Fold:
Amino acid sequence: MENQETIVTTNNANPGIRSVDVNRGVEWLVGGFKMVFKTPGVWLLVGLAFLIGSWILGKFWLGSALSTAFGIVFTGVMMRACQSLESGQDFATGLKETFSSAPLWILGLIGAALSFAIVLVVGLLGVGSVTVGAVSPGAFGSMLGLSFLLLFALGFVLYSALWLAPALVVLQRVNPVDAIRLSLMASLRNILAYIVFGLLAMIACILGALPLGLGLLVVFPALMCASYLAYKDMFGA
Structure:
């Protein structure tokens, strides 16, 4: 029996958050790969474009923040592509309009700012641990461990908040702030399925990176498609 919680957003969008079984975490990933293998040529180009874009932006100052913004916008565009393919339309249907969507870019900028803030906070804590270590060497390990723990916790919350936000902004026209809130709530409400999916996604990325990273050309698009399926499951789209 699925539970549904109605959330009212400020732009009249009214998506509900559904509770799903833990095994859906596996099914999202499997379904994502199935979507990719239906039109592999197109998705390989998508994976290549994503890898190249992320690599180029990573070379710049604030590369982490820029890559986050790029990933959000890119994912939002791919959410539209997934919807088009599923409805029998051409892959490119609506992509230009989606790419030029102001709310999607605002979401990307918010994500970039949050990513930068996390790096800044953890970096300052790291500097503090070095300073403390100079005075009390025994405390250095504890401070460093705290830095890594904080980085993991903040990173988990950030990814949870941004995971489904692009789909909500693009496909349901939810405003960026509400989309972030809804994504976080959906992730936490379905935490077991989310963790299963996250662990499997990590394994897929590790395996995809082994053959000179070529497997990531398939893995990254599959994860985007899987996120689309997760969005549909949790928001009843």
